[in-house]
Amino acid sequence: MHFQWYPGHMTKAKRMMQENIKLIDVVIELVDARVPMSSKNPDIDELAKNKSRVILLNKNDLGDRVKTEEWKQYFEEQGYFVAMVNSRNGNGVKAVQNIVMDACKEKLERNRKRGIINRPIRAMIVGIPNVGKSTFINSFAGKACTKTGNKPGVTKGKQWIKLNKNVELLDTPGILWPKFEDQMVGLRLAMIGSIKDEILNITDLAISMIQFMQENYPNELQERYQLEEIEAEPVSILEEVAKVRSCKKAGDLLDLDKAATLLMEDFRSGKLGKITLEQVSALSQ
């Protein structure tokens, strides 16, 4: 499969971010804890040069805890301020304000020396589509102040949100980047739902997921679908999933597309287990 999805509104969103970056003290980037590197937009590094940086490993309840800790350490070694959060239940969200203040400590000190006191920190929230920005902001602010949805592209324009007297947030639409140099990045983003399913072959996607699970999380795959044989061909595994979950179409034929959709939903919701699709050790290979 070839992965690319860069609708026109993303170009406009990137331009808007470039225009507003001069107003910003700190850039808070949400990444998906299951694919921390693939969900980190390389364009943000260029955009946020010379700004304080915070990375939030969001959806950490869905990822492999040990691997998420390794990613946290990796990003801290790269000079980022890092927190692990679960925006849906608010886990770790309260700690983010202190991390933002830590990241801006030098800026606050410079302001104090110049006699600028009580000026709120201005933070820009960035992230790829469907990484959970709106849910995080609502959780962080303690009220529903942005639209949320479980499909990419819900936030269309920018909006300032006053959190408290210390922090103001600039929310931005989720943006990808125009070209994936590595198609494995595209595959992982498709798996977590950051690329619209409508433009993908869901059965091929599920077969890739099964291959990954066989190599990395065979027990979770076997237990979820009561599989007798875990080392079979991935398409045979998908057929078994279709049988176990009664995915049938006319003529009592197996409906592999339906089984594939079900399997991907199980992964994205965490029903398949706590799974991380990439690991720090692969960066040095």
Topology readout:
Elements: H1 8-20, E1 26-32, H2 42-47, E2 52-58, H3 65-77, E3 81-84, H4 95-103, H5 105-113, E4 121-126, H6 133-141, E5 159-162, E6 167-171, H7 183-192, H8 202-216, H9 218-225, H10 234-244, E7 248-249, E8 253-254, H11 256-269
Parallel strand pairs: 1-2, 1-4, 2-3, 4-6
Antiparallel strand pairs: 5-6, 7-8
Give your account of this protein's structure:
The protein is of the alpha/beta class. The protein folds into 2 domains: 8-171, P-loop containing nucleotide triphosphate hydrolases (Rossmann fold, 3-Layer(aba) Sandwich), CATH 3.40.50; 201-284, Orthogonal Bundle (Conserved Hypothetical Protein Ylqf, Chain: A, domain 2). The protein has 11 helices and 8 strands. The protein has helices at residues 8-20, 42-47, 65-77, 95-103, 105-113, 133-141, 183-192, 202-216, 218-225, 234-244, 256-269; strands at residues 26-32, 52-58, 81-84, 121-126, 159-162, 167-171, 248-249, 253-254. The strands form 2 sheets. A 6-stranded mixed beta sheet has the order 3-2-1-4-6-5, sandwiched between helices. Strands 7-8 form a two-stranded antiparallel sheet. A hairpin with a 4-residue loop joins strand 5 (159-162) and strand 6.
Report the top-level CATH class of the largest domain: Alpha Beta
Gyration radius from CA atoms, angstroms: 20 Å
Query: Numbering strands along the chain, what is their spatial order in the largest sheet?
Result: 3-2-1-4-6-5
Q: Main β-sheet, in a few words?
A: 6 strands, mixed
The CATH architecture designation of the largest domain is 3-Layer(aba) Sandwich
Number of domains: 2
Determine the CATH superfamily of the largest domain.
P-loop containing nucleotide triphosphate hydrolases
- In N-to-C order, the SSE pattern is HEHEHEHHEHEEHHHHEEH
